[in-house]
């Protein structure tokens, strides 16, 4: 089971992967300014309790954190210590967040982080080779107990072999969604899979994107089918560690 937890909402764009951000599309429908970060009503969700004293989120759940912002957003610096503390207190939950601001992580870590909280998984997002070469060295230079590489939205071919080691828990790949989505070439996806298989690193194809180029044909895939069709491709690579 999994739970979404968005302690704050809003972000500002910093790279090509942000160009057609789904949060901006959703906010436009409600006349909201996505660049204005704000705490949400769900800020303290992990530590909320029921009337009988039990936590509203039961132990054992995966909590996907900050998927309508960036956990390392500069505007959230004042709120982040409390979010770290909730993650520390709820050691019976697993938390996962992705970031395009990995260069900020080391300075944003809580004092007792050490080699990393056992229950926190951090994903570094890389959408093209330039960002992979800029972000991934910083990612691996920061103490993290559980890390994944997120190639989404995948905007070009990627060579990740230099960073594929047992320190990587998974490589997750997806195309871009939305009416202005850029093309994702299935050959790029298969290349990443081959790299992961060669390095014996788990690989997951989590989303096709809205425009998929495969074997010379361009497919337009509706949003509600993009995750299911990626799963149906049957190319995930799982290993037991």
Number of strands: 12
Q: Could you tell me the radius of gyration in angstroms?
A: 18 Å
Determine the mean pLDDT.
97
| Poorly predicted regions | none
Shape from CA axes? globular
Q: What is the count of helical runs? A: 6
State the assembly state of the protein chains: single chain
Helix-strand pattern: EEHEEHEHEHEEEHEEEH
Largest sheet: 7 strands, parallel
N-to-C terminal Cα separation, in Å? Answer: 21 Å
Arrangement of strands in the largest sheet: 1-4-5-6-7-8-10
- Percent of residues in β-strands: 15-25%
| Helical coverage, percent range | 10-25%
Q: Which structural class best describes the helix and strand composition? A: alpha/beta
Give a written overview of the molecule:
The structure is a single chain. This protein is of the alpha/beta class and 241 residues long. It has 6 helices and 12 strands. The protein has helices spanning 22-28, 80-89, 105-108, 129-140, 186-199, 226-232; strands spanning 2-5, 8-9, 38-39, 62-65, 94-99, 120-125, 146-151, 168-174, 184-185, 203-207, 211-214, 217-220. Strands 1-4-5-6-7-8-10 form a 7-stranded parallel β-sheet. Strands 9-11-12 form a 3-stranded mixed β-sheet. The longest helix has 14 residues, at 186-199. The model has no long low-confidence stretch (mean pLDDT 97).
């Amino acid at each position: 089971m999994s739970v979404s937890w968005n302690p704050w909402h809003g972000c500002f764009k910093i790279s090509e992967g942000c160009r057609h951000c789904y949060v901006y599309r959703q906010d436009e429908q409600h006349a909201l300014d996505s660049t204005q970060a704000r705490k949400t009503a769900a800020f303290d969700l992990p530590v909320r309790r029921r009337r009988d004293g039990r936590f509203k989120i039961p132990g054992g759940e995966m909590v996907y954190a900050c998927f309508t912002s960036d956990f390392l957003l500069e505007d959230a610096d004042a709120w982040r210590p409390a979010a770290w503390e909730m993650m520390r207190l709820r050691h019976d939950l697993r938390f996962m967040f992705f970031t395009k601001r990995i260069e900020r992580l080391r300075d944003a870590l809580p004092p007792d982080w050490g080699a990393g909280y056992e229950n926190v998984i951090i994903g570094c997002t890389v959408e093209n080779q330039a960002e992979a070469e800029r972000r991934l060295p910083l990612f691996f230079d920061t103490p993290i107990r559980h890390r994944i590489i997120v190639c989404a939205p995948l905007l070009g071919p990627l060579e990740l072999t230099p960073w594929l080691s047992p320190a990587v828990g998974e490589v997750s790949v997806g195309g871009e969604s939305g009416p202005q989505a850029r093309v994702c070439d299935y050959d790029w996806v298969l290349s990443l899979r081959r790299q992961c298989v060669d390095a014996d690193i788990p690989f997951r194809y989590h989303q096709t994107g809205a425009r998929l180029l495969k074997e010379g044909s361009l497919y337009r895939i509706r949003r509600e089918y993009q995750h299911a069709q990626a799963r149906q491709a049957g190319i995930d690579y799982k290993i037991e560690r």
